[in-house]
Specification:
By secondary structure, the chain is of the alpha+beta class. Helices cover about 40% and strands about 20% of the residues. The protein has 2 domains: about 160 residues, Chloramphenicol Acetyltransferase (2-Layer Sandwich); about 220 residues.
Amino acid sequence: MDRLHALDTAWLAMEGDGPPIAIGTVAVAEGPPPSDGEIADLLMERLPDMGRLRERLVHGGALRRPSWSTDATAALAQQTHRVECCAEHGGLDAMVSGIMETRMPRDRPLWDLWVVQDADSDRWALVWRVHHSIADGLGALVLLGHAFDLQPGPGRTLADLAVESGRSSSASRQLLAGLAALPTALPRLPDVVAAVLPKSPSPLSGPVGDRRRWVSVTVPLDEVAAVRAALGGTVNDVVLAAVAAGFRRLLEHRGLPTRGRSVRNAVPVSVRPPAGVRSDNEVSLLLARLPVGVDDPVERLRQVRREVAAMRAFGVPVALVGLLGLVDRLVPAAALEAVVRTAGRTVPAWYLDTLTTNVPGPRVPVYLAGRRVQAMFPIIPVAGRTRITTGIFSYDGSLHIGVTGDGEQAADVDVLAAGIRDGVAELASLAASAAPAR
């Protein structure tokens, strides 16, 4: 039977009785929203290609891990919803926050879809969630991408592009690139050790409750390109430097000191084999400290670049996925749930303060039920003791950013989101007056 692996089980165990640990997308589109009939037709046409969305969990009892059943598509009406948002009650961001708090019944396929009409304008959005036990970030893109077309009518889909992108950035390629940089990274070994050793408690982390706060912002990709051209680094480096700027602002907003401080950040890294890309959880973590105590934006970027390069060169993501593989093979099914629940609620507090995902999307527009999609924001959950997460998705000339916070202890994530946006703008302004990097 197709049983869950350790990482899949971890998401279910960490969830407990709280809101679902689900990932997904908020696709904002033009034109009138599709009718219930159009949504049903789209799902019936595309679900045959969507694997896990046609299945539900079957619990294996005390001695066996849960497994995925076969076809479970009979009750689509229970999976789809239609709601309305308005500016008076927080608009789309507030509606997404409420949707994130809504549980997914375990006796149905673990996904749901919400058509959200904006009462104050002619825009609408599709909020589509998939439980994290089904897929990671790239996996969700592959899975849900079957519903997004590269033209107004059926044909090539976003899933096709996601598979091609996943193959070009496979784990083996990442490892080889890291090993090639190992000689230059050796002086950074003390920093690598410091980044993976347990840390002291942080005011940014702690128990996560049942409320959620989700905030979206958009950053022009040409600003990121300008920073790369003048100051060097990758898109991910620039993004992480901007996230560092955002956390610096958040800490200042909370009246906490930033001098000499760093924020432990985890970046999911795909470890899929080069032979193909599936929608399962095939991901490890790259641990890197965000230098929020550095006042100079350019120096923050330099420090991020050096640390990320060193962590990749020393193979930290590959080592972590190897450790998870040992857990998957050696821990008995009867003990696995207890082990991963305990680890999920305690280990992150020792090693990280936050998590940032950055998934590359298409440079061209995509279409949903014939409507052009204007923006695609990621939904990334908070769980365990990680109260703040940031999801970034590049699409059609922009970085679309969705920041999730615990609704009680991190309700001020709008400060962080604005700081990320302004962090990119500040670097772009400095890049405009800098000489091109060699």
